[in-house]
Amino acid sequence: MIDMHSPEGSALKIACIQMEPHVGDLEGNLATSVRLIETAAQQGARLIVLPELTSSGYVFENREEAVSLAEEIPNGPAVAEWIAVARRLDVHIVAGVAESDGPFLYNTAVLVGPEGFVGKYRKLHLWDIEQMYFTPGNLGVPVFETPYGRIGLIICYDGWFPESYRLCALQGADLVCVPTNWVPMPEQPTGREAMATILTMAAAQTNSIFIACADRVGIERGQEFIGQSVVVGCNGWPIVGPASHVDEAIIYADIDLSEARTKRNLNEFNQLLSDRRDDVYGGLVTIARGRSFF
Amino acid sequence: MIDMHSPEGSALKIACIQMEPHVGDLEGNLATSVRLIETAAQQGARLIVLPELTSSGYVFENREEAVSLAEEIPNGPAVAEWIAVARRLDVHIVAGVAESDGPFLYNTAVLVGPEGFVGKYRKLHLWDIEQMYFTPGNLGVPVFETPYGRIGLIICYDGWFPESYRLCALQGADLVCVPTNWVPMPEQPTGREAMATILTMAAAQTNSIFIACADRVGIERGQEFIGQSVVVGCNGWPIVGPASHVDEAIIYADIDLSEARTKRNLNEFNQLLSDRRDDVYGGLVTIARGRSFF
User: Which residue from B122, B293, B280 is spatially nearest to A280, judged by alpha carbons?
Assistant: First the structure.
């Protein structure tokens, strides 16, 4: 495993754990996640981000298999274990988990900490065959208060919708954590940064927020994942990463989330979030509903 | 001047003219623009994009100077000349111009064609000391029908607001033309693509639209501009450019705007514009007005 570190010396050390879950191996995936969380905590990380669907794996054969790998939140085995680990190590953890709620399955991210369960987010924009198994998220885009700052959660394909990050920022998020299972995008040129990296940088810049993306690696039932976990600063530029395309890794960034608030001014006149023209954008919804293009 | 060409063979040749206007030299700037439009048309370009404030230059000393360099639209000298040139050469032209309308000044982009004046857009998001001279735009983000497809217009700092492009896309825009005067952004690392390029790529990908940015070059009254004009495809990747940081240039791209409609499907399940969750985003305005963060 190759670890990457950002310059030392700031208020909060974040770790993104880039690991390879194996679909169906709930116990093995959970054990791996705990081992890597312990490693990150030993390195001083206080906020640790894991990939999308860390405990279950990603490529389900059918809905039955997805159901068998899902759990209730917060009492299911993976989230309960992450809560226990967060208490023991005095850290916050963000992780992806298949959530069952009655007959419904959600692609969910949880935030847990030393005090226990903090909150969860259900993926709004489902990618590809996820639509066969999961119900689209119904909790909006919540932002949670933590001792380090305000944290929003989104998952993978949500990042292709600028509104996801905007909703976090407008609720005051300083950091958005992104558990993800990025796959190769159509028409990605070789030798260029992944479109996922481009979109993350654009979102960090346009919202003046930090963004921490923890991706998985490996090939699962023929589906390739692209790694390249990254932490981007509130100026839009990567602090650490992108990590390897293929290897497990932990990337560390020392950041001060308050910079998301204090460094927003671009010059004497401009601040990106207050420069928004809501008087004009208010029409977004109306326009979308009033036309038949899409 | 260094010209750059994309692969040949598609339906519409676009040209972005990267030139250096000189503040106050209305006649000289207009003459330069016409000369370069003629060159682009000789190369086969049918849609030609010029920078922001092509005729006036950018760095005004005071409001009085800005007023003296502004004109009424469409009867002022620069727009009237571009209309005449568009008729003569059978091309469409997008260009930036300082617009006077009674006591108000706007930072405006016009679209003209062989049939005359098509429409205009007034910059919504004013950058830095533009706020001393210009009134913020009040025409929303209009999208115009042309023989080649639907064209939206935005200007420079508008591109830092994902909503600008979103408004174009939701009205069916296939292409957004961006007359711009990009300046160096705070904290831009050397050796990386400009944040302007990153944001353009992200907007093209997330909206499945073509984007054609024509920047200026040069240093005007101490203000540096960064060039790097670019045409980005509806898959988010540059077709031609970014052009030079410092030299005048014309970049050409052969594109088929209908691809913005036919190539939107990412896979069997996903299409970026129809995957939007307006049921959730509807809260954007409410959230922005209900909180006091910004």
Answer: B122
A230 interface with B at CB cutoff 8 Å: no
Q: What is the pLDDT of residues B171-215, one digit of tens each?
A: 999 999 999 999 998 888 888 999 999 999 999 999 999 999 999
Q: What is the domain range of residue A251? A: 4-290
Of the two residues B264 and A189, the one the predictor is more confident about is A189
ipTM, interface predicted TM-score of the complex: 0.94
What is the number of structural domains in chain A? 1
* Set of chain B residues whose Cβ sits within 8 Å of the Cβ of A277: 124-125, 136, 161, 163
The span from the CA of B197 to the CA of A235, in Å, is 15
Q: Which of A127, A163, A276 sits opposite B270 (nearest CB)?
A: A127
**What's the CATH number where A178 sits?**
3.60.110.10
CB contact under 8 A, A236 and B198: yes
Q: Say yes or no for a CB contact (<8 Å) between B170 and A125.
A: no
Mean pLDDT value across residues B7-23: 87
How does DSSP classify residue B5? Answer: E
Q: Is B148 on the interface with A (CB under 8 A)?
A: no
B72 is catalytic: no
For the stretch A65-116, pLDDT in tens is 999 999 999 999 999 999 999 999 999 999 999 999 999 999 999 999 999 9
Domain annotation covers residue B136: yes
Give a yes or no: residue B293 inside a domain: no
Of B160, B205, B236, the CB nearest to A272: B160
B177 catalytic? Reply is no
Of A167, A170, A270, the CB nearest to B127: A270
CA distance B227 to B213: 10
B32 Cα to chain A: minimum distance (Å): 32
B152 located within any domain = yes
Tokens at residue B199, please? 């944001």
Compute the distance between CA of residue A29 and CA of residue A25 in angstroms, rounded to an integer: 6
A145 interfaces chain B, CB cutoff of 8 Å: no
pLDDT number for residue B289: 55
